Automatic annotation (TrEMBL):
Occurrences of domain RNA 2-O ribose methyltransferase substrate binding (ranges): 28-102
GO MF term list: RNA binding; RNA methyltransferase activity
Organism for this UniProt entry: Rufibacter glacialis
Keyword list, A-Z: Methyltransferase, Transferase
Cellular component terms (Gene Ontology): cytosol
PANTHER family registered for this protein in UniProt: 23S RRNA (GUANOSINE-2'-O-)-METHYLTRANSFERASE RLMB
Name listed for the protein in its UniProt record: 23S rRNA (Guanosine(2251)-2'-O)-methyltransferase RlmB
Methyltransferase among keywords: yes
GO BP annotations listed: methylation; RNA processing
Lineage, uppermost ranks: Bacteria, Pseudomonadati, Bacteroidota, Cytophagia, Cytophagales
Superkingdom: Bacteria
Keyword Amino-acid biosynthesis: no
Region (Disordered): 1-20
Residue stretches of biased makeup (Basic and acidic residues): 1-13
């Protein structure tokens, strides 16, 4: 659902069975060899910054391993690296992820094997970490099986995201995909309907024809400009949340809570 870059603050109690992890910030790894060793050890990394123009063999190996693990890499000038750390970075700085990402194909297969209808949430370029944390909290409360995000252009899952999610990010799988266009195609080929929540839709969420039962992936758009046109083309259904006020836009975390609640309501009514 499109919005105007508002933030939904954490405002409630945490799940009783969850203890909030003590995370101040993402752990930094700097230096070519330490980053390479982290990748070989299977550490999940949020992002890697490499010195632009370097042709070091270790840098090339880091690039290859990162691509295999779908870890975003940015080639940057030395000034950017110096801003990240004053220590001897050797042209390489990386951040370890606060969570471990899950393979989407395995998640989907597992849900079907259990005889369940998947309910997935696909996020197109949600960049605000507090929005993302609030969305994750909504998703976990409403029974979403997994959250899907792009490897580039998405909020970093850091301490703020963890805190705002109130523990949900430790309970719900998150899948990081390189190409959302291919991901949406994979979901459709797997028998999962893609339902786009967008102000550009003609059908209201409250219309009786809008069916959110069965295998469904709800697609939500970015804070700035909503769902990308190339992704909207791949949606099976487009719906909008009816509104009567003058603003005519909702924060994306609020919009996600509304449509996911409707999905839960319909499924429980079956």
């Amino acid at each position: 659902m499109e919005n105007r870059n508002n933030r939904d603050r954490d405002g409630g109690g945490k799940p009783r069975h969850y203890t909030q992890p003590k995370v101040d910030k993402m752990e930094m790894v700097f230096g070519l060899r330490p980053i390479l060793e982290a990748l070989h050890a299977g550490k999940t990394m949020e992002k890697i910054y490499l010195l632009k123009g370097t042709k070091h063999s270790i840098s090339q190996e880091i690039t290859e391993l990162a691509k295999e693990a779908q870890i975003p890499i940015s080639l940057v000038p030395v000034e950017k690296l110096d801003q990240l750390t004053r220590k001897n970075h050797q042209g390489a700085v990386g951040y370890l992820s606060a969570i471990s990402y899950s393979p989407l194909d395995e998640i989907v297969a597992s849900i079907f094997e259990k005889g369940k209808d998947p309910l997935l949430l696909v996020l197109d370029r949600i960049t605000d970490v507090r929005n993302f944390g609030a969305i994750a909290r909504n998703a976990e409360c409403m029974g979403v099986d997994a959250i899907v995000i792009p490897s580039r252009g998405a909020a970093q899952i850091n301490a703020d995201a963890l805190k705002t999610s109130a523990g949900a990010l430790s309970l719900i799988p998150v899948c990081r995909e390189t190409n959302l266009k291919d991901t949406l195609q994979f979901l459709r080929q797997s028998g999962i309907r893609v339902v786009a929540c967008t102000e550009k839709a003609e059908d209201n969420l409250t219309d009786t024809a809008v069916d959110l039962t069965g295998p469904v992936a709800v697609l939500m758009g970015s804070e700035e400009d909503g769902i990308s046109p190339e992704y909207l083309k791949r949606a099976d259904v487009r719906v909008k949340i009816p509104m009567v006020g003058q603003v005519q836009s909702l924060n994306v975390s609020v919009a996600s809570g509304i449509i996911l609640y409707e999905a839960l309501r319909q499924r429980q009514a079956q």
